[in-house]
Design a protein that fits this description.
The complex is a heterodimer of chains A (about 525) and B (about 450). In chain A, a hairpin with a 2-residue loop joins strand 3 and strand 4. Chain A has a 20-stranded antiparallel sheet that branches. Chain A contains six helices and 24 strands. By secondary structure, chain A is mainly beta. Chain B is an alpha+beta fold and about 450 residues long. The longest helix of chain B is centred in the N-terminal third of the chain and has 21 residues. About 5% of the residues of chain B have low confidence. The chains are: A mainly beta (about 525), B alpha+beta (about 450). At the A-B interface, helix 1, strand 1, strand 2, strand 3 and strand 6 of A face strand 5, strand 6, strand 7, strand 8 and strand 9 of B. Chain A: Keywords: Signal. Chain A: It comes from Duganella dendranthematis.
Chain lengths: ~525, ~450
Amino acid sequence: MKKLAIAAAIATTMSGGAHATDLNPGGEWQIRWDNTLKYSAGARVESANPLLTTGAAKVNNDDGDRNFSTGLISSRYDILSEFDAQKDGFGIRLSAAAWYDSVYNQNTSNSSTATTNNVSVGANRFAPETARIAGRNAEMLDWFVFGKSQIGDTTLSYRLGQHSLIWGTTLFFGMNGIAKGMAPIDLYKLSIPGTQAKETTIPVPQLSSTLQLTNDTSIEGYVQFKYRPTRLHPAGSYLSSTDMLGDGAESIWAGPLKLRNAGLAKGDLPNNVGFALNTRSELLDADLGFYAIRYNDTSTQVVTQAATRTYYLAVPNGVKSFGASISRLVGIANIGLEASIRDGQALNAKQGTVVLPVGQTAAWLNDHTPYPTGRTAHLNLSTTIVSGAAAGWDGLSVVGELSANHINSVQDNPEKVDTALNKTAWGGRIVVTPTWYQVLSGLDVSVPLNVGWAFKGRSVIDTAFPFSGSPDHGGEIAVGITGTYLTKYIANLTFINYRGKATSQPLLDRDYVRFSVQTSF
Amino acid sequence: MNKNIRKLMAAGLATIVAGAFAQAPNLKSGALTPLGAERAANKDGSIPAWDGKPVDTKPGADNKRPDPYASEKPLLQITSANVAQYADKLSDGTKALLAKWPGMRIDVYPSHRSAVFSQAIYDAVAANATRAKLTNGGLTVEGAYGGIPFPVPKNGHEALWNHMLSYRGQLTVFTADKYVMTANGDRVLTNRQRTSLAYPYYDPKGKPDGFSGEWARARLDVTEPPANAGQALMTIDYVDNYSKPKDGWQYVPGQRRVRKSPSLVYDTPDASAAGLANFDDVNLFIGAQDRYEVKLIGKKEIYIPYNNNGLFRKPVNAVIGKGTLNPDAVRWELHRVWVLEASLANGKRNVAAKRRLYLDEDTWQAVLADTWDAQGKLWKTGQAFTLVAGDEPSASTLSYTWFDLLTGGWVYAAAINETGGVSYQDYDAKQLAKFTSSALASGGVR
């Protein structure tokens, strides 16, 4: 029964709620339907910095900045609905999300017709896809059936349908680990306060299965049936830092030319597959995991073709990744270390070198790789600590991660590699959350302090490493206050401050405050 | 081997064994019960002798057990008006609750020594009496198996291990709620979870020599509140708390992966208890003893909550009172308890600077607890409520409460009023496959 308390503690980091709709509490079937409602709003607190919006180099990075003057950047309603039904370990799960953000259903503040990357609408409008993804949408998340069978002394369990699956010990830097090849991330939703973990990985149609061999050892595998890219901040949305990527990206300025987005070029897309072995070492008193996966990168590469005034977003095919993780207690801290190497990882190219030859169509990408690739190494070291009262607070949690990557060798197109970028890059994030219980009757308050920092940020492997924009020697500081009333209503107010230099921190002038209130029932 | 040598060796072994038993207490028929409690009644007969006969508690289809004493009437009622008359039979915390809440009342019923266990447990306790010992300053139990380790405890650490390793079934499954009552009187269901407990320490097929050192594996599947539904947790507790702290794993919904959890022990607050209880407050005390000097004060006759099958059967609306549980719902009896006092060891810290624990002599489980803060002020008091399962047979505390005497907030944990009863099953090593981190991952739906 100590366990009661413990499970509850896990709940802490997440949010609270109250009575769910337990449709059949006593029967053989367990049926649940839960809903989470949320309102959130954000406001920009400083004006656009001309250093970040003007000049030829900024024409493909300025829309998100120019679209918003100080004041409201979001006023959004979210609903997440989840339905499960199961009996004896077999069942079905469905979940869906819908949202409406009035700000993205209005005009923008952008008057720069000379630099807008919009094509279908004017500078003072959000591109239709941006307005849809950021402004009003509804989508299915999970839809899958699950079950299990006993085979001798082993248990086989499986899920078939659209769902998410992540391996490894990574906490924050999933794109730098095995997780990168397993599940695309919804970066836009990640920036909406109060978003739960179950909404931030984008589920993909797949068959996944676990065979539990002994109490301590299991093997897992999956095969995915559909490709989905990472969902970036839609082009022109408040935190977007590139205008040619993400939903709503309509064009790219190449000198005086405006090349139109011709969409995803998936190439000769094989299915994503992966295998894992999980075991527990008595000797090391640790959990060990070994992983091998092959995937089509969730991050796309820009391939331009001046002749047709178009560009494609090419999906790097068949990247291989091998990794291992170890996790154990050291004192009261959980320490997790995840290391992996990749073969065929796309690298950042010198500007203007990744082109589709004249006369070729996207089909050319089936057999050709116009961008550089390489063998790379990735390391994520994470910790979680939960502890008790001290002078200033009733409870404290610390969650942190250091993340690093390094290029070992270049495979395709070595001459195109952008050598101005770093062969090794590293960054980290730490979230320290002191909590005070029953500050007022029924009200618990916590003050999360979240610092993300790129110690050496301009990675040749990933322009979004360690965060969006790769702010070299920069990052972000978020200070918030969260109140939980009767474990059911959660409100949060956070101030986000971006640090770094104008040359490498595209979000430097986008400090903002965010508020959210939510409940589940 | 030569027959004579073998004979000689057997004789020698017999002498050693006999020697050990000569020092062992007579637990089968002497003054002590098989678990080391006093067998006889007290002087005035208000505490009866232990007769070792299980009571009839045949559970219904919902695993709820009837109250075998439902027809009894209280012998006396203690309120703030007459508390002085009974002061020597009440804990400090009980007196503080009576003083704080005008509606608080203690209904004292006839005492029943219903705690009866199986012969296998009695045999194991008798064997433990001569083979179990503490090492590492009380952090490690060696040589014990299948029963409480120290039927005649020589010190506080031994008595506290008896509480921790007391019998709560072999494979026990129930769904339990946690309610927090705020200072303003709001009642909040903060957690509901399916709780599965496996006790390898009580595997009847096991042997002390082959014992892995894991005394309990727990699996918790959270269903309420909705925002937390789908979370799951698994823990392993070891009898060697010195070199093997409690292990834990958690299932993260949405990612469908299992992560090793940080250490959730000592005075880290349980957020679902709104900070009213810490991780070491579960079952009134659990966990490593290294932060405390534990003194065995002695035995005492006091009023404790006991034989509370009736409490577990009532709807929660009938159970939650103002400031405390509804006095009509709680059965108190006079019992002999061991009194333990845990004070912070030199150089150690815990928000509870001093704890007093009252262990029921028949089950060894804590039934009342008082906690003092660093300023020496009585701060919290806890009560644990005993479920009698004569069908198992067993008696063990299940639900428990913690009251913050300073703020008036309180928590009612492991409540089964709305969730059905307790299923006790025979230990089956194959079942351990459900108590693993990979089982958490493969069983996760959300």
